[in-house]
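Notebook, p. 212. Picked up where the previous page left off. The plan for this session was modest: take the two constructs that came back from the sequencing core last week, fold each one, and keep the raw output in the notebook itself so nobody has to go hunting through shared drives later. Recording the first one now, exactly as returned: residue sequence, then the structure token string.
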Amino acid sequence: MEALTKKQQAILDYMRQHVAELSYWPSIRDIQAKFRFASTNAVFGHLQALERKGVLQRIPGAARAYKIAPEVSADLSETVIRYESPSDDQIVNFEEVKFAGAIAAGLPDYTESSGVLSSMQVPIAAGSRRRSPESFALRVRGDSMIDADINDGDTVIIEPGQPKHGDIVAALIDGETTLKRLIKQGGKVFLKAENKNYPDLMPVNELVIQGLAKTVMRRI
């Protein structure tokens, strides 16, 4: 059986604990609230990963019904879990976006990329426009943006646009790249972390905004 990520293991542990304490499985909304996911689609992504890795098994002939694999938890393997899948109007479309390496979400650092490294599939929200072909994806390194719910290992989609006060941006500050919130205040323009343990960043010579962080994709 393929190893679980820390988040997948935490979800599985929560499901077991919920059954042990309340005698029934947590709902999709329960899992979303417990782990503070932005949408139920994130929950389904984790459940699909658990199914793919053999932790959850579909019950033949039963719609949207699962059980925990006996080798994972023998005492729960006969208990049926039923989860409603997203309705047709929630079906997510995808588009291809260039992946350009990593960006520091800590103190500024030299970017790990040197141009486009590959591409990745990125969801398009229902009713949303397609992204500019100049958009690109960066993997986040560090914890300076955790209070904006951008965590180490997440992927941010950077899009072109006119930066405004308060936007989260990919920026080149004095030759080094970082992900921060843009602040325009009292004639000064600087970068602010979303973590009290990090200082504001004041440019000495140069501040170039490379793009706006419009989408965050959580690693599962």
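Okay, moving on. Second construct, recorded in the same format:
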Amino acid sequence: MKAIMYHYVRQAKPELPHFRYLDVANFEKQLDYFEAEFGFVSRDDWDSFVTGASQTVPTGVVLTFDDAMSCHFDFVYPILKKRNLWGIFYVPTGPYETGTLLDVHRIHLLTGAIQGQALFDYLDGIVSTDMIPFAKRDDFAQATYSSQTNYPGVAEFKRLLNYFVDETLKSDLINTVARHFDYQFSSDFYVAPDNIKTMSEHGMIIGSHTQDHPVMSKLTFAEQVHQLQASFDYLDAICNLPHRTFCHPYGGFHSFDDNTVTILNDMNVLYSFNVQSRDITLNDRSAFKHALPRYDCNEFAHGAAS
């Protein structure tokens, strides 16, 4: 059984000439490819597998979508409905409570609008070594963005902000970069709460992607508890969750720690997705239920970013 991870599935926007996304037409082609090569796991078979009701691993593909971006409702959801498919949609809930974009998405928009090397060169010039206190930065340097194909400077820009700088400084640094390049962030970015409810009511699984999409391994135990509890509280209030499921922000074993797994178990989260290029096995359900592997869509035919 293969789980596939998607982020942006959309059409081109001229105001974002450097933006990386999966074109809607290629998404449909990839679904055709998956249907021909592997088939899709039914919702009933998935539920039986993750709850332990079945002792066999279903054959086929499970579709997952991260970050609750508006394109998921505008493009992905209608396509899935048309094909009688279902998917798992992971929602970072902070923007619904604050009305602002998450830092991770403001970074995406900057790198979509402005040449990556220019962004990194400017940021590198204003970040000092005392802004990079985290002890695991050497690990992050080797483990992050290794599977992505980015324009020059983009991976370095994203890595410096998402992993290296102190979390308390990140938002202000993004603001400084945006002002320097005279860039204004869009406001209509996420799936509306009523549309999340609609998706849930029509067979889609809704899961937590934390409140603010942090690198969880950079947070204290209490901070991780808050990120997860606040997220599930919000989702419980707007839709009926058939079970609790979670997806690690950024993904990879460097992005979470033993505290994360302990908290997920304490909160009765049934399963969580990591990022790892291999199939899901029966052993994963019993031994690694909070690190289920997912392939990136770009590892398969028609999945290359535009």
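Notes on construct two before I forget. Residues 140-145 have pLDDT under 50 and may be disordered.
Flagging for discussion at group meeting.
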